[in-house]
Amino acid sequence: MVNIFIRGVFLYLFLTLSLYGANIETSTSVVSNAQTFVVTVDSEDVEFEALYVTYQNHRYPFVDNFYALVPTSYYATPKKTKAVVVYKESGKKKYKSIPITIIQGKYKVEKLSVDPSRANISIKDRKRIKRESKEAKKLYSHFSSDRYWSEPFIRPLNSKITSRFGNRRLFNGMLKSYHSGTDFRASTGTPIVSINDGMVVYVGDRFFAGNTVVVDHGEGIFTSYSHLSKFSVNKGDIVFKGDIVGLAGATGRVTGPHLHFGVNIHGVKVDPMNFLEVISLIAY
User: Fold this and answer.
1) Closest CA to 221 of 140, 157, 154, 280
2) 3-class DSSP state for residue 274?
């Protein structure tokens, strides 16, 4: 079996544990809140079934009995914790712990000015926001177990990053939140592309995100492209890496035209740029 960590190994501190003749590897033993890591199992010399990894009270499945993509919540408390590999050997369920240290990410504070209606939120809009939040949670809870992609991921466009994931935000001096994606500089009409193959599972308008496209890449990986001025795809479409999903714009809660790019792993919002680094370690 080809080892998942064939590229970019020097970027990470690897932790290897013995699992009754097999090896468990993690891409890192130290993660910031909202970062992602990978757990792999090399089972060439022993027969067993890798089931899932438990971490932060959630289960993350192994793909092809080999690797699990594990996200850390933005709200995770800095501490020493563990990820537990759950597997079956000779029909018996067994467990192996991996020490993980969660640290606080170095996120900045941003002060932004937006349309007052997007900061002083009305009762009607609060109901809309609550509805959209439930819809998004349901959307991300159902994903294809198949992998749509077979090549490296790319960026949605090549331009300057104007705001990174995790920055704490103060809108019009009153409304606090955190930045749940990465913003790229883009004038209205700039083509935005899917970062890899997948299925379009959402095309619509959201209060905060404006016109948004969500792509399911399989195995619990979703990407979203927001504040678009125009859609180029429909729900249910199969898209390939580099296909245009829409044009950049200034819809939703914005200070001006740009792309808000988001990544969701098994229902958890994660740092998109960290995700692109981690996913690049997977063998294609």
Assistant:
1) 140
2) helix
For residues 27 and 4, what is the distance between their CA atoms, to the nearest angstrom?
A: 10
Q: Which of 140, 134, 154 is nearest to 222 (CA)?
A: 140
Q: Are 34 and 270 in contact (CB under 8 A)?
A: yes
The answer to whether position 56 is within a domain reads: yes
The verdict on residue 4 lying in a domain is no
What the block records as the tokens of 182 is: 């990465």
Find, among 206, 190, 186, the residue nearest to 257 by Cα. Answer: 186
Average pLDDT on 165-181 reads: 66
CA distance 251 to 257: 8
Report angle CA 136, 254, 143 to the nearest 5 degrees.
Answer: 20
Strand pairing category for 109-112 and 168-171: parallel
Q: Cα 275–279–280 angle (5° rounding)?
A: 115
Nearest to 262 by CA among 203, 177, 183: 183
Q: Is residue 221 pLDDT above 90, yes or no?
A: yes
Identify which of 63, 64, 81 has the alpha carbon closest to the alpha carbon of residue 72. Answer: 81
Strands 258-265 and 182-185: antiparallel
Verify that 155 and 266 share a domain, yes or no: yes
Amino acid at 252: G
Q: What is the pTM of this model?
A: 0.85
Examine the domain organization and report whether 92 and 132 are in the same domain.
no
Confidence of residue 19 (pLDDT cuts 50, 70, 90): low
Pick the closest to residue 169 from 107, 119, 250, 112 (CA basis): 112
Return the SS3 of 129. Answer: helix
For residue 272, how many other CB atoms are within 10 A of its CB?
26
